[in-house]
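Journal club side-thread
Mid-discussion, someone asked how the predicted structure for our own chain would compare to the paper's figures. Pasting it here so we can look after the session.
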Amino acid sequence: MKNVTAISMLLATLASSTFALADDHESSGMHGDKMPPAFSKFDKNSDGRISRDEAREGTDRMFNEIDTNKDGFISKEEMQAHHKIMHDEFREGMREKMRDHWKSADKDGDGFLSRAEVEAAHMKRLSRDFDKLDTNKDGKLSEDEMKMTMRPSPK
C-alpha cells in the first residue's frame, strides 16, 4: 500500500509540474478558457473534466513514458531525463510562440521591430526595455539583439 501511495504522490507531482511547464510564462496561470496541454492528455473523452479512471489511465501512461527501461521503477536518472525532455519541449514551444509573435508584429516585413511596431503589437516588456535592448542604437530590434538578451548571465 505504501508503494501505491508513493507512486500516486509522485505521479501527482509529475502531473502538476507538467501543467506548470506547459502553462504560459505569465504569472496568471490560466488564460481565459485555455487549458494546459497536459489536461487534454488526461481528459480522453474531451468532456472538460478528468474522471478518476482517466486520471489513473493518464498516470499509468506517464509512468510508462518515464520508465524508459521498463523495469517497473522510475530511477532518478529517468526522472531527470524526462524533466529535461519536458523542459526542452517547453522552451522550443516558447521560441516558436516568440517567432510567431515577432512575425505578426513586424508589419513591414523587414525582419526588425521598430518601436512603433512593438507598441502597436502591445509588447509591453519590449516597449519598456526598447532602448536597452537596441544595443546598436539603430532604432529597431533585431533577432540577434533579442538572442543576446535571452542568454543566461555568467555566474
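Post-session note: The beta strands are 113-114, 140-141.
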